[in-house]
Each structure stands twice: as structure tokens, then as C-alpha cells.
């Protein structure tokens, strides 16, 4: 780590920063506008979902249905660590910013000469953090703040050990580093930070260790905490606006963070948010989902357990919630509701223009809400084999449960679909605004589930259920294959334009392009390109290891590149990564993915593609050592 | 008395129709409060065989930990804003 206890800054630097620190208290926040502008440039990919709409959509067309067959590797980069590589790199101008799983090293790579690491910031972390990570030591990405007159651009990083760090984007030097989560109570960080205006939003992990979830806003320049909103407990801590859910009072309003729990169970009630964010500058709300309640044993926590499993619309300036819709009241299946939020503007069935939010949840339902007030527009099954609910009532918002597929003490429930891994997990999907298609990477996994009683001890796992997982009805249960699907979905009609089966879960998410090609990576180690209209497989490439991140694309020197992390891991990879054999180990994922090791091993890096593999190194003299030039070449 | 009668009636109906009267999430006591105990399970678990018996000392640890982190962060940030120098180790931050 570059930051020292006594900082590296000399007197001149000190003066500059002092001015910055004084200046931060005044002036309007315009940096979100700058981020919006930067995102419009095809040269950049400035945040997790490319822009605030989180559509993972690129208007570039150089790579299209015809040319995609010529896609070849242009260059690659190894991060030097194994374990799961989630998320996607950021690109700003001539620099690619890459992150790694634990120990969460950050790299800046020169796109003019990708062999060159401009800087790296490697933190020293307490290795104990690894022991309280439920599902591999993954991290979902970085955030970028474009800077202002006072402070230069910053890269923001979360660490598994609970720290949030701001680094100078040009030098990699640490500006500030603060504690958000405490591993001693089982609280870690895997989520990517998210920049809105001049603040950085940070989520939380640890519901499998009974961590009560919260989301926090920090001043991006100083790290000063601006607000913190919890998922459970008193309204002033959940932070509900005066008009919270006034548009949909039947969703519930006041005091439910306490009243839907028995006693103090809400204090260890989960609801962490480790997924993704989206933001609408017009409505000035950011959107995310809170996770599952703790423990998994439903019998130990009677009640609807609000506000876990909730789609939130919150004010980024103060964290106050304008609306909250609970998707899975009283969870019985670990359908952690943290999945991707994709924004779109479409006409509803009555022809009314709507600002929408579409969200494929773990519970097997794709929710589409009006993002200005939380109105429920559609809620359709991702696959017709979902059986815990017969469907969601749009007028009440209630999912009608099928008691046969609920879970409870002294009972082993069988053939529940989806499984705890969900029909959709952490993958960041995409939306094609021209085709009005959501391209979703889907899981096809079901399960048996039997809860057991257990005590809560801070810092220890607090799960209380034994699971067996296996392919869904459309897969091959005998051979434990056919665990995934990829589909094109219309949120208004509810129709699927096309759907294909995959050998394993399509875990990492998708990328859509105006070239009519959609991309995604697979756990068995391929990046694939399909025809956005038909789903036809147009191209693929065998990567060094399986993929659990989402593809991205950027333009550099007039050329379109597609980049993707490889490095299998995450929840589906825990058996392979930690060499586990008991099928119920890894919270039940080991059995479901026992065939994975026949197709891939661990890895860690980025592979970048272009037409014909053209890159700066197409001129072989680029980056060569020149003895005539002292010091570093170029 | 009324409650007992209702419960008995529900039990009879349940016996007659199988799972039809089990918790399906649609019977709400108030907006946002739709949970019901499953057949054979208690309305409240305290004092039953399913009582989680949470230790208040354990349950309060997260809140204490967050308070302590926030206090350390506040000292770091205050010194940073005041001097432009960031020091992580709070013990090394010079006193006023």
C-alpha cells in the first residue's frame, strides 16, 4: 500500500490539499454531470454498468453481427491472484483501471501500451477477513470520480476487510482510507463503490453471519460520512422520507422495520446490499436491493422481516427512502434481493411513457417498477419452472406462496425452484434500448432445504440450513449439467424473444451493443457472442478460466475493444476454489457444480479482444526496450 | 374465546382441505404485515422449542462496533480537513 502512516505528501502537496479541504464545504455538486458526459464518450467506461442507467449497452457498431467472427485477442493481463474475478474493469481516456479479488490490488494500465502498469496500489489486509467471506473473496469493481477545481480525479475501492479507499487516479496514491465494516462481527465488503455527485455510496456484506445491512454515503473528497441507512430497525435508522411509499401505501410504511420482527431479532436481521446500483439524475434517486434476512432458518424469525429483500429508491444526498417494495416477505430460501437494477424509458401497456427500473431477482421473478414512485408495472417468472410462488399480484404487490415449496423446521423441503443461488444472481445484465430487450444471464438450479436451530455469536456463521442443489427441470440432473440459461426479455409484454440453455449458470452478466451482438462469459471458460435478435451463437473464444464478471467495451485510437475478466470462483466456484467434496458444503453449491472442475481451473486476469486482434502491439516496435534511452522506455 | 373458535375452525378446515389454509402470504393484518404462522407453528417463538434465545450481549456487538469505527473515522476526517494530511492510525493523530 502506498499510503504510509506518516503521509508521503510534502509541504507543497499539503498546501494544495489544504485548499481542497477548505473548499469542499461550499459550491454546487456538478461532478455527476461530468460523469454523465464522460459516459457518453465511447472511449470511456466510467462505472459498473457503463452509465447511470446501468444498461451495459454500447452504441458502438464496429463489431456487429458480420464482423464479430473476426474477433481475436488483442492483449491480456494477469492480476497475479487466483480466486473469483467479478465485475469489470473501468476505462477512462488512455487508462484501464483493474481490480482483483483479495487482497484487492488496484492496477492502472496504459492503453497506449498495455504492457505497462502505470501504478498499482496493494493494500495490506488482515487475512482473517478471508474466514468471514461467505462466498469466495470476490470484489465487484471500482468507481471513478472525475475531479473538480480542487481535487484531482479519484479511483474508489472497497476491501474485503471493510475499508473504503480513495486513490489519486493519476498516481494511485491513497488519499483517504476509512472503516465501513468490521470483520470481527462478520461484516465484509465485496460490493463496488458507486459515485453520485460528490459522494461515494458503499454497501455491505455478511447476512450469512447475521450482519444487519446498511448503505453509507461518504464525501468523496474527505471521506466524511454523510448518512447511513439500515435495512431493518427503527424508521429513523432505516431513514424513511416523510412521503415514504405514499404512492403505494399497501407496500407498508411506518415502523415496519421493528413491527415485522419478533423482539430484537432485527438487530441481526441481515438485509445487506452487495449488488449493484443505478441512479436517475432527473428523479435524483438511486436504486438498489437489500439482501436476505438472517438466519436462513425461517422459523427463528417470525414476521415479514422488513425491510430486507426490498427494492429501494433513495435520495443520494441524505439517504432518505422515497419508496421501498419488499419482493420476498419472510424469506425462506435465501433469495437475497441485491441483483442488478437496469433503467429504461418505455411505454407501458396503456401507451403511457414511463421511467422504469427492471430487476431480475434471485426469487425467479423479473420486477419492473416505475422508478419515480415504485409503482409495480410487471412481475414475471424468469422461467416457468419457478414454483415457490404461483405469481405476483400486481395490485397488492404480494407474491402468492405455494405452501408446498416453503421451508420450516423439522421438515425437509424438496424440489424448490429456484434454489438459494437463485434463478439469477450477482451478474450485471444489459438492456438494448433499440430492441427493448433485456439480455439476462440466468441460473437453472433447484434445491432441497432443511433448517436447523443454532445460536448467534458475533463473527461466526449464522445460517442454520442444510441444502442440496441440482439442475432445474430443464437441465440434466443425472449428469449435473444444464445449470444455466440466457434469455432476451421484454419487460412490458413479458415475452421472451429467445432463450438458450447453458452447461453452467450464466453467472457474470451480459453486454449489449448497437452492433446487434450481445456478449457474456461462461463458467466453463468462454466468452460468447450471440445475435441480439435471434440468440444465434455467432462467435466464442476459450479463455484461460471461467468467467463470473460482465464484459465491457470501449474505443481506443478509433478501434472498438471488448474486455472481460477471467478467473472462476464466487459461490459456484467455492468447491473448486477451496477443494471441497461434501455436496452440501459451500452452502450447498459444491454438489451442484461438481462437474465444473472438468472444464476449468482457477485463473485471474483480463482478456481484451478486437477485430483481427489489432492492438497497439500490431506495430511490434511499440513497447520495445531501447538501450539508448535511459530509464523506462517510451 | 372468539380467537379460540376461529383457530379451531381454521384447524378443521385445514384438516379437510390439506394445505389450502397454510400461509400463502395473502392474508394481511395491516399494509405490509402479511406473515402468518404455518400450521402447527407458534405466532411467537419466545418460550417455545424454536426460541432462538439470543444473548443480548452478542446481539448488541454490531452496533457497538459501528459506533467505534465511526468515532475513529471522525477523528481521521477531522484532522484531514483541518490539516490536509491524512493519518489512518488514530493513535498517531496529534492532539489539539
Automatic annotation (TrEMBL), chain A:
Binds 1 Ca(2+) ion per subunit. Its EC number is 1.1.2.7. Residues 1-31 form the signal peptide. Belongs to the bacterial PQQ dehydrogenase family. It comes from Amaricoccus macauensis. Coiled coil: none annotated. The active site is at 334 (proton acceptor). Pyrroloquinoline quinone binds at residues 86, 140, 190, 206-207, 272, 574. This is Methanol dehydrogenase (Cytochrome c) subunit 1. Disulfide bonds join 134-135. It comes from the Bacteria. GO terms for cellular component: membrane; outer membrane-bounded periplasmic space. One of its GO terms (molecular function) is alcohol dehydrogenase (cytochrome c(L)) activity. Keywords: Calcium, Disulfide bond, Metal-binding, Oxidoreductase, PQQ, Signal. Residues 45-377, 507-562 form the Pyrrolo-quinoline quinone repeat domain. Pfam families: PQQ. Ca(2+) binds at residues 208, 292, 334. Its cofactor is Ca(2+); pyrroloquinoline quinone. NCBIfam families: PQQ_enz_alc_DH.
Automatic annotation (TrEMBL), chain B:
One of its GO terms (biological process) is methanol oxidation. Its EC number is 1.1.2.7. It catalyses: 2 Fe(III)-[cytochrome cL] + a primary alcohol = 2 Fe(II)-[cytochrome cL] + an aldehyde + 2 H(+). One of its GO terms (molecular function) is alcohol dehydrogenase (cytochrome c(L)) activity. Disulfide bonds join 28-34. Catalyzes the oxidation of primary alcohols including methanol. Belongs to the methanol dehydrogenase subunit 2 family. Heterotetramer composed of 2 alpha and 2 beta subunits. This is Methanol dehydrogenase [cytochrome c] subunit 2. It comes from Amaricoccus macauensis. The lineage of its organism: Bacteria, Pseudomonadati, Pseudomonadota, Alphaproteobacteria, Rhodobacterales.
Amino acid at each position: 500500500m502506498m499510503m504510509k502512516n506518516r503521509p508521503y505528501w510534502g509541504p507543497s502537496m499539503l498546501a494544495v490539499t489544504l485548499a481542497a479541504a477548505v473548499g469542499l464545504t461550499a459550491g454546487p455538486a456538478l461532478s455527476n454531470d461530468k460523469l454523465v458526459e464522460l459516459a457518453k464518450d465511447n472511449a470511456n467506461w466510467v462505472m459498473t454498468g457503463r452509465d447511470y442507467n446501468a444498461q451495459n449497452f454500447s452504441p458502438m457498431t464496429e463489431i456487429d453481427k458480420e464482423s464479430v467472427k473476426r474477433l481475436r485477442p488483442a492483449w491480456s493481463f494477469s492480476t497475479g491472484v487466483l480466486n473469483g474475478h467479478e465485475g469489470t474493469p473501468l476505462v477512462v481516456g488512455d487508462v484501464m483501471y483493474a481490480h482483483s479479488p483479495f487482497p484487492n490490488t488496484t492496477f492502472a494500465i496504459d492503453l497506449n501500451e498495455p504492457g505497462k502498469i502505470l501504478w498499482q496500489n496493494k493494500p495490506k489486509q488482515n487475512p482473517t477477513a478471508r474466514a468471514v467471506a461467505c462466498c469466495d473473496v470476490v470484489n465487484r469493481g471500482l468507481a471513478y470520480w472525475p475531479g473538480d477545481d480542487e481535487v484531482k480525479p479519484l479511483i474508489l475501492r472497497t476491501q474485503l476487510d471493510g475499508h473504503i479507499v480513495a486513490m489519486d487516479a493519476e498516481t494511485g496514491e491513497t488519499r483517504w482510507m476509512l472503516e465501513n465494516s468490521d470483520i470481527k462481527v462478520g461484516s465484509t465488503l465485496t460490493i463496488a463503490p458507486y459515485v453520485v455527485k460528490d459522494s461515494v455510496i458503499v454497501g455491505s456484506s455478511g447476512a450469512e453471519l447475521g450482519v444487519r445491512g446498511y448503505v453509507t454515503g461518504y464525501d468523496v473528497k474527505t471521506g466524511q460520512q454523510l448518512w447511513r441507512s439500515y435495512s431493518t430497525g427503527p424508521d429513523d435508522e432505516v431513514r424513511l422520507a416523510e412521503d415514504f411509499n405514499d404512492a403505494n401505501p399497501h407496500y407498508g410504511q411506518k415502523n415496519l422495520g421493528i413491527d415485522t420482527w419478533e423482539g430484537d431479532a432485527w438487530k441481526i436481521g441481515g438485509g445487506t446490499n452487495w449488488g449493484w446500483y443505478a441512479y436517475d439524475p432527473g428523479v435524483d434517486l438511486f436504486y438498489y436491493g437489500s439482501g436476505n434476512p438472517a438466519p436462513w432458518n425461517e422459523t427463528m424469525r417470525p414476521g415479514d422481516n422488513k425491510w430486507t429483500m426490498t427494492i429501494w429508491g433513495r435520495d443520494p444526498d441524505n439517504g432518505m427512502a422515497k419508496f421501498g417494495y419488499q419482493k420476498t416477505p419472510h424469506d425462506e430460501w435465501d433469495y437475497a434481493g441485491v441483483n442488478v437494477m437496469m433503467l429504461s424509458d418505455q411505454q407501458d401497456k396503456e401507451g403511457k411513457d414511463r421511467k422504469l427500473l427492471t430487476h431480475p431477482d434471485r426469487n425467479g421473478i423479473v420486477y419492473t417498477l416505475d422508478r419515480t414512485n415504485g409503482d409495480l408495472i410487471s412481475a414475471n417468472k424468469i422461467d416457468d419452472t419457478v414454483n415457490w410462488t404461483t405469481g405476483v399480484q400486481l395490485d397488492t404487490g404480494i407474491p402468492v406462496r405455494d405452501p408446498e415449496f416453503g421451508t420450516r423446521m423439522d421438515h425437509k423441503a424438496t424440489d424448490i425452484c429456484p434454489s438459494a443461488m437463485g434463478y439469477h444472481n450477482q451478474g450485471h445484465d444489459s438492456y438494448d434500448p433499440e430492441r427493448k430487450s433485456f439480455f439476462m444471464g440466468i441460473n437453472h438450479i433447484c434445491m432441497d432445504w432443511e433448517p436447523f436451530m443454532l445460536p448467534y455469536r458475533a463473527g461466526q456463521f449464522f445460517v442454520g440450513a442444510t441444502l442440496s442443489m441440482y439442475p432445474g427441470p430443464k437441465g440434466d440432473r443425472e449428469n449435473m449439467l444444464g445449470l444455466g440459461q440466457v434469455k432476451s426479455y421484454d419487460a412490458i409484454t413479458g415475452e421472451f424473444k429467445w432463450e438458450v440453455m447453458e452447461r453452467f449458470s450464466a453467472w457474470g452478466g451480459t453486454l449489449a451493443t448497437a452492433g446487434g451482438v450481445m456478449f457474456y462469459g461462461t463458467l466453463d471458460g468462454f466468452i460468447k457472442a450471440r445475435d441480439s435478435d435471434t440468440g444465434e451463437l455467432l462467435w466464442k473464444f476459450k479463455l484461460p478460466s471461467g468467467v463470473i464478471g460482465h464484459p465491457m467495451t470501449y474505443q481506443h485510437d478509433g478501434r472498438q475493444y471488448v474486455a472481460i475478466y477471467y478467473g472462476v470462483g464466487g459461490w459456484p466456484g467455492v468447491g473448486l476454489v477451496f477443494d471441497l467434496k461434501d455436496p452440501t458444503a459451500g452452502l450447498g453449491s459444491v454438489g451442484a457444480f461438481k462437474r465444473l472442475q472438468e472444464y476449468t481451473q482457477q485463473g485471474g486476469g483480463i482478456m481484451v479482444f478486437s477485430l483481427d486482434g489489432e492492438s497497439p502491439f500490431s506495430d511490434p516496435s511499440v513497447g520495445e526496450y531501447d538501450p539508448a534511452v535511459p530509464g523506462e522506455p517510451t | 374465546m372468539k380467537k379460540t373458535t376461529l383457530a379451531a375452525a381454521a384447524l378443521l378446515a385445514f384438516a379437510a382441505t390439506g394445505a389450502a389454509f397454510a400461509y400463502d402470504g395473502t392474508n394481511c393484518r395491516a399494509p405490509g404485515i402479511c406473515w402468518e404462522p404455518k400450521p402447527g407453528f407458534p405466532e411467537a417463538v419466545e418460550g417455545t422449542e424454536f426460541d432462538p434465545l439470543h444473548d443480548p450481549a452478542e446481539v448488541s456487538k454490531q452496533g457497538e462496533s459501528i459506533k467505534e469505527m465511526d468515532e475513529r473515522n471522525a477523528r481521521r476526517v477531522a484532522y484531514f480537513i483541518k490539516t490536509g494530511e491524512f493519518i489512518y492510525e488514530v493513535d498517531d493523530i496529534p492532539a489539539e
